[in-house]
Amino acid sequence: MIEEEAEPEPRENAKIIGITGGIGSGKTTVSKFIEEAGFPVYYSDVRAKTIVNDDAELQKNIKALLGENSYDDNGFYNRRYVGEIIFNDEELRLKLNSLIHPAVKINFEKWVSQQKTPFIFKETALLFELKLNQSCYKSILVTADDNCRLKRVMDRDEKTYREVEAVMNKQMPEKDKIKFADFVIYNNDGLDELHEETMMILSEIKTL
């Protein structure tokens, strides 16, 4: 279990590049392109989904905060239930994040210690919101026009316009993220254009 492992020291020479973007921006696609180019990518949201099920101490703390229904009868994290009760409760959402993010941080640092490449990439939706960019060498923001993002998520998740808009309105505005980012990828066109722009930025990063 995560809490029983000694917290590893991050590699001193590791250059960590943060990748972020709002819902429907295409940050995961950009991360896959970078991974295909031979660089390791840590997918924070994916890892968190595993950690909330594997870390017994974290499970106990989440149940204490949100109730027994935060896990289903089979012992798995009840994402739908949790999402519904924290969506309009900012204080509760912050408390939940304060439980999950330290566990993800430990997991990330262990992962970093195992990597050998000069650049290491970390995909996370909350890079700027949680000020995680402050511990990164550089940051990449993947963004797109609101209408593009809305349509992508509606098609992908079969959600209504209002449902997607409500999620977007909860996230940090794109104009604010752009101010913090070292590199910005505008994903308003097709996959070929997105791949080309990603490779251009990756080439620039490798020269740093």
List keywords for this structure.
208 residues, disordered N terminus, 5 strands, alpha/beta, 5-stranded parallel sheet
Outline the fold blueprint:
Blueprint: E1 15-20, H1 27-36, E2 41-43, H2 44-54, H3 56-66, H4 79-86, H5 90-113, E3 119-123, E4 138-143, H6 146-157, H7 161-170, H8 174-180, E5 183-186, H9 191-206
Helix pairs in contact: 2-5, 3-5
Describe the structure.
There is one protein chain. With 208 residues, the protein is of the alpha/beta class. Helices cover 52% and strands 12% of the residues. It has 9 helices and 5 strands; from the N terminus they run E-H-E-H-H-H-H-E-E-H-H-H-E-H. The chain has helices at 27-36, 44-54, 56-66, 79-86, 90-113, 146-157, 161-170, 174-180, 191-206, and strands at 15-20, 41-43, 119-123, 138-143, 183-186. It has a 5-stranded parallel beta sheet, sandwiched between helices. Helix 2 packs across helix 5 (90-113) and helix 3 runs antiparallel to helix 5 (90-113). The radius of gyration is 18 Å and the shape is globular. Mean pLDDT is 91; it is low at 1-10.
